[in-house]
Amino acid sequence: KEEMNKFWSKNARLNRPMSPHITIYKWSVPMMMSITHRGTGVGLSGAISAFAVAALVLPDNYPYYLDLIHSLSVGPFLIGLAKFGIAFPVSYHTYNGIRHLCWDIGKGFKIPEVYRTGYTVIGLSIVTSIALTFL
Ligand code: HEM
């Protein structure tokens, strides 16, 4: 215990960052993609659960609420933005999920491949989300 105390007081004295200290890492595309995969996964789970709970507890049905949104006349820009905001996490998580599954079978681990597949996923996600927005 005494050794541990010495260890921690030395770290504090030398102003060493304590683990976990992700701030020491230089941000990279694969790193951002990884956190976005988690973010979109958790976001999708939350959104689907909220949708399911709403379907159970709200008094009216889906077409009624859709009409309600239409009647607000928020304009095509905001509607488009909202549609993109839904389409992007779905597209991104699906394409990046396929990238993850490739890793799970041992493919695509070389650093240039990680970047290439990463940029492909980002590109496909943007194109797919724009296409879905205009549906
Ligand atoms: C609405 C549908 C989906 C939901 C709600 C969902 C949700 C999630 C969540 C919560 C995670 C855990 C994220 C983390 O803690 O790191 C996850 C991970 C994952 N998802 Fe999805 N997901 C969905 C669709 C998909 C699809 C369509 C694919 C594949 C094509 C996919 C592939 C994966 C993979 C491979 C992982 C594990 C990533 C890892 O190894 O860290 N998901 N998903």
From TrEMBL:
GO MF term set: electron transfer activity; metal ion binding
Cofactor(s), names only, from the UniProt record: heme
Cofactor details (free text): The heme is bound between the two transmembrane subunits.
Annotated binding of heme, by residue: 93
Gene Ontology CC, one term: membrane
Main function: Membrane-anchoring subunit of succinate dehydrogenase (SDH) that is involved in complex II of the mitochondrial electron transport chain and is responsible for transferring electrons from succinate to ubiquinone (coenzyme Q). SDH also oxidizes malate to the non-canonical enol form of oxaloacetate, enol-oxaloacetate. Enol-oxaloacetate, which is a potent inhibitor of the succinate dehydrogenase activity, is further isomerized into keto-oxaloacetate.
Name of protein: Succinate dehydrogenase cytochrome b560 subunit, mitochondrial
